[in-house]
Amino acid sequence: MPSKDYLLAYPIIPVSRYEPVVIIVRRVGAGGLIIGPVYLNQLLTVITNIMKPTTTTTTTTSNTDSIDPCYEAYYNYDVINHYFNSNPEPGVYVASTFTFLWATPMLTGTEYPTGILGYQDGNGSYLWDTCLLIGNTVAYLANNPSGVLYYLPTTVVGYEEYQESSTMYNNYGLEGYQVGAIDYYTGDAWYNESYTNALVADPVGATFNSNSWNPPSTSSTSSYEIFLGLEVAGQEVVPFIGVSISSPTSESISASTSPWDEIELPPGAKVLVPNITWTFNIGATGSNTGFPSAFEDITPAMTIFSSLSTASIAAFPIDFENYAITSRMYCDYFTYQTIWVNAEWYIVVVPQSSNTVSLASTSITLIPGNAPTGSYVTGVSSGKVYTPCARP
Predict the structure, then answer these.
(1) Which of 56, 62, 73, 286 could serve as a FRET partner for 355 with CA atoms 20 to 30 Å apart?
(2) Looking at residues 323-336, what average pLDDT do you find?
(3) For residues 67 and 73, is the Cβ–Cβ distance under 8 A?
(4) Residue whose C-alpha is closest to residue 319's, from 296, 342, 338
């Protein structure tokens, strides 16, 4: 590590026979130094306190252009390839073989290319989005004397981004982490409670990789690709497109499926109902810089139902969270802010024939909380943590 960026220790100065000190010099921001004497018995503590934020924080020097995968899918399928035959409701786009369902126009009425502006203040802006690709043609999951189950292949995508302001940057803030979750486990609980009469689940054997639950865990990456499309039994239902998610810094990604269950539906079909959760550990800062994350289930998942004569409803939550340190004062305190979104997809399947359905009544609900009026998030919380340095 270059000493000009981190720590300088000058020779010992004998203040007394028993209490020699060293002079510590630490660079702060672009134009400041902290200089002071430290007794040797406090040196380890001070060095630990000084180095801790610096070794986990990256300063970026360039902005990141946001690419919302949901908008990219809409643009590719509609503007470029003209797949859509109708747009019966805001956010509902119907093609011959699939329906594209997009949260941004459903909630805002506008096809914003950056997703939903959920919350904005002097520290920065938080955006999020989610979309579904669902096949229109009915497939058979199980068919035996005890009953019939049908399904529609389903791709689920989530996207979020925090755009750090120059104010937060100048206050020595940093973007901490983001969380995204696709929660089929809770959707299955709603199904068991008869709150819904259909459910979304994954086939047994789904796992974290670029062909199933994406992205997989990694200790370090600055980019990965999100894919939108549908393939069933080797047949492409929706043409795949790839969207690159590029971070201005290296980050780690951890992925989990807790809680989860493997269930057996009445005609003997086994499926998975996990809570698929990603944590994007960023720990970086940059003036007017965006930090995007995206996640998806392209296994594909299955929207499972049992009737071709009446409507079916499947539901599941999709959740987002952003944690940022909004300001820091060395040897004094830091302030933090958490923004979260709890949303729920309601997939309404209306049979049109023995092999086709309409999904035009599908919707997304934003769960209310303590969010400020006019925002599109569930809640915002903040606080202060005091971090005094050890005194001699």
Answers:
(1) 73
(2) 96
(3) no
(4) 342
Q: How many CB atoms lie within 10 A of CB 367?
A: 15
Cα 196 to Cα 13: distance, rounded to the nearest angstrom: 74
Tell me the three state secondary structure of residue 69.
helix
Residue pointed to by tokens 């660079």: 27
pLDDT digits (tens, 9 = 90+) for 143-157: 665 678 999 999 999
Any domain includes 391: no
Kindly state the tokens that stand for 133.
Answer: 């690709």
- Residue range 34-70, pLDDT digits in tens: 334 444 444 433 333 333 333 344 554 444 456 899 9
The one-letter amino acid at 318 = I
Q: Is the peptide bond before 105 cis (omega within 30 degrees of 0)?
A: no
Do residues 206 and 261 both lie within one domain?
yes
In angstroms, the CA 141 to CA 302 distance is 9
Question: Are 344 and 378 in the same domain?
Answer: yes
Q: Do 211 and 101 lie in a common domain?
A: yes
Distance CA 303, CA 313 (A): 9
Q: How far is CA 81 from CA 110, 208, 243, 261, in A?
A: 20, 30, 16, 39
The DSSP symbol for 208 reads B
Does one domain contain both 27 and 75? no
Query: CB of 379 within 8 A of CB of 368?
Result: no
What range defines the domain where residue 39 resides? 3-55
Give all strands (DSSP E) within 269-373, no chain letters.
269-272, 275-285, 289-305, 312-329, 333-351, 357-358, 363-366
The total number of residues shown for the chain amounts to: 392
**b/e code 271-310 from CB counts within 10 Å (16+ = b):** bbbbbbbbbbebbbbbbebbbbbbbbbbbbbbbbbbebee
Angle at 45 between CA 43 and CA 47, to 5 degrees: 65
Cβ contacts of 169 within 8 Å, gap of 6 or more? 285, 286, 287, 288, 289
Structure tokens at 43: 């040196």
Query: Are 150 and 232 within 8 A, CB to CB?
Result: no
Tokens of 162: 């925090």
